[in-house]
Amino acid sequence: MAASVLSILHNKLCGILGKLNLFFLIPTTLALFTCLFIIFYITFTSNLFFQLYPHSPPFNSTLTKPTTFTFTQALHSGTNNQHLNKENTENRSEVFHDRDIFVESYKDMNRSLKIYVYPHRKDDPFANVLLPVNFAPGGNYASESYFKKVLVKSHFVTKIPSEADFFFMPFSIARLRHDARVGITGLPEFISRYIFNISHNYPYWNRTGGADHFYAACHSVGKIAMQKASEVKFNAIQVVCSSSYFVSSYVPHKDASLPQIWPRQGDPPNLTPYNR
Ligand SMILES: *[C@@H]1O[C@H](CO)[C@@H](O)[C@H](O)[C@H]1NC(C)=O
Ligand SMILES: *[C@@H]1O[C@H](CO)[C@@H](O)[C@H](O)[C@H]1NC(C)=O
Ligand SMILES: *[C@@H]1O[C@H](CO)[C@@H](O)[C@H](O)[C@H]1NC(C)=O
Ligand SMILES: *[C@@H]1O[C@H](CO)[C@@H](O)[C@H](O)[C@H]1NC(C)=O
Ligand SMILES: *[C@@H]1O[C@H](CO)[C@@H](O)[C@H](O)[C@H]1NC(C)=O
């Protein structure tokens, strides 16, 4: 752009000087040479002319590029290869900045990830905290209930534990808190008994020490709940409505944060975010 503007300017300037040349030969010849010299000088000293703007390809034109690094491979190379050298680690970190690899991994995850939800009967005395609620969740801790409602209906759920990648423990901390039989003070005991039950009735907890198990909790008492079950806190994946990395009991390398929503009835407020 700048180059073409300058070259038009140059042509005009030199053209005018060329016509004047007929009448004022010597001064205009000098002017012409000066004109050319200035342009010559500028082109060789300024990066204005030589700045190369690489033509960025359209965002999705690279999708045809073969992507061989998939989620499952990442998972396996991450867990099985214990002797990662620095170079590999650095290269793998680039994977997370590559849109195509991300999309492929996402599709792979969507296709292959399987979750086993510990089953509980409708007549279980704690069915109210273990099964998804059959009404629209509301209030501060609604995300916790929505998470379970949506998860159990999703295509990720499998009834065959042997094909599961993860195991979901469906207790609801928020509902236990309001259950007169448990309450806040009874939470640690309940969770401890729950882990005792699943680790004695099923082989999966012991296999990994709970590392492939997860639960969701939106209430801050979740951290009290694990007081008598430190193996949950240190091994299992805690999907929590954490507003901060620094809350105690949140372990960044394995836990995940769940956005907290507060569903409200009626029309959304007609206000821009700054005016709410
Ligand atoms: C991406 O691909 C789609 C479908 O092939 C095409 O319609 C769209 O224009 C492309 N977008 C860009 C930014 O190239
Ligand atoms: C990635 O690996 C290649 C060899 O496979 C190496 O040449 C390159 O330097 C590595 N890149 C980084 C950022 O480590
Ligand atoms: C994930 O998989 C489901 C079931 O196969 C499919 O309905 C859905 O569209 C997929 N989602 C994405 C984002 O690919
Ligand atoms: C543990 O199992 C026992 C016996 O089946 C049952 O009575 C109890 O409610 C269970 N407790 C929890 C917290 O799952
Ligand atoms: C799991 O480990 C505990 C403690 O070591 C043990 O008591 C229990 O029997 C084991 N569960 C199974 C299903 O083997």
Automatic annotation (TrEMBL):
<dbReference type="InterPro" id="IPR004263">
    <property type="entry name" value="Exostosin"/>
</dbReference>
<comment type="similarity">
    <text>Belongs to the glycosyltransferase 47 family.</text>
</comment>
<keyword id="KW-0328">Glycosyltransferase</keyword>
<keyword id="KW-0808">Transferase</keyword>
<keyword id="KW-0333">Golgi apparatus</keyword>
<protein>
    <submittedName>
        <fullName>Glycosyltransferase</fullName>
    </submittedName>
</protein>
<keyword id="KW-0472">Membrane</keyword>
<feature type="transmembrane region" description="Helical">
    <location>
        <begin position="20"/>
        <end position="44"/>
    </location>
</feature>
<dbReference type="InterPro" id="IPR040911">
    <property type="entry name" value="Exostosin_GT47"/>
</dbReference>
<dbReference type="GO" id="GO:0000139">
    <property type="term" value="C:Golgi membrane"/>
</dbReference>
<keyword id="KW-1133">Transmembrane helix</keyword>
<dbReference type="Pfam" id="PF03016">
    <property type="entry name" value="Exostosin_GT47"/>
</dbReference>
<feature type="domain" description="Exostosin GT47">
    <location>
        <begin position="110"/>
        <end position="263"/>
    </location>
</feature>
<dbReference type="GO" id="GO:0016757">
    <property type="term" value="F:glycosyltransferase activity"/>
</dbReference>
<keyword id="KW-0812">Transmembrane</keyword>
<keyword id="KW-0735">Signal-anchor</keyword>
